[in-house]
Amino acid sequence: MKKKHPHKKKVSFTKKWSAKLHLWFGLSVGIIVFIVSLTGTLYVFKDEIQNSLRKEAMYVKESSSTPLSIAVLKEKVSLELNEKFPINAVEISLDKNKSYRFSYYEKNKKGWNYFEEVKINKLVYVDQYNGKILAVYDEKYNFFNILKYIHWSLLLNSEWGKYVVGIPTVLFIFMLITGIVLWWPKNKKARKGRFWFSWENVKTWKRKNYDLHNVLGFYASFFALLISITGIYFAYPYVKNTFNLALSGSTEMPKDKEIKSPDSLMVKNASVYDLTAQKTRKLYPTSSSFRIPLNGKNKKGKELKNIPVTIYGEEGRFSERNSLVFDKYSGKLLAEKAHQKLSNAEKYANANYDIHTGSYFGLFGKILWFITGLICTSLPVTGFLVWWGKQKKQGKKI
Question: Does residue 137 sit within a domain?
Fold first, then answer.
């Protein structure tokens, strides 16, 4: 006969359903949460590791002579690599001791997985003073790029694969919220054991595992919520539209007006890219680097009517971005869009990637994001062990 406990309080409706949702969501998407968290964590220090490994290719000896023409360098790279795809763009650092980076990038939208979707993704480091190719990296098979696409779409086609990751991420957000509800102590006495581990008299691994899940999950949950929300910002248009509405009062971003070239009838200036680079350096001398498209197409493959140049304010960050538009025939400056003049929604759109990776908050942010990622990676494991322990306990009773 079971003993009655009249003093025992009933579990509230909120906590009861929070426990059920937390368990159901955890068991259904735990493995995907584990994979996405692990790959995201390993990706955090990508720039620091990769820059260290590529140091010899990144730096050149500054010469008293001026750099060779971008068109000449482009031709040298094309002839030496002999790729069937055209060079996509060049990124030029404002630091004269850093090499130019020419990139090849071509996609096949019909490819069902990452390796079929990305036809080519190569990065070529070139000494701008003598035209020597310092290194060629096949970014398609780069460790960090593969990590990124596992994190983004589990290596499935990026257009629909993002939902395979996006849906579990939304459920993970609910798991974080229900986890906080379950963690929340009833009174001051219960609160003491919720903020840190009290293992003086604890000998069983089950209790320690439960505390790891409970305490670490609580501390990581607030940062994990921010990381998750910035993640689904990329995947779901309605999330982006909500941010736009909240920040700028409209669901849609301001659209740039198409500028018709005033010099479309003239012969294209052979030094058009050098003129754009020269003007960009003059207008933004304290920036980190700038990117010039060289194949006459944008990222979606549509023909560019002009030459849009993107200027990055700080190395390894995308939040502070300026843009210039040049005439593709004469190289004349047609438009300028400075970071300061962007709407709040546009500024946030540029900053979302940096917030998601932690780089927006500097090295401290990256360390904090890395620790949070490790904890998020552990939560599906410790959570499953908590559930498994209860199942075994119930089995013994029977």
Answer: yes
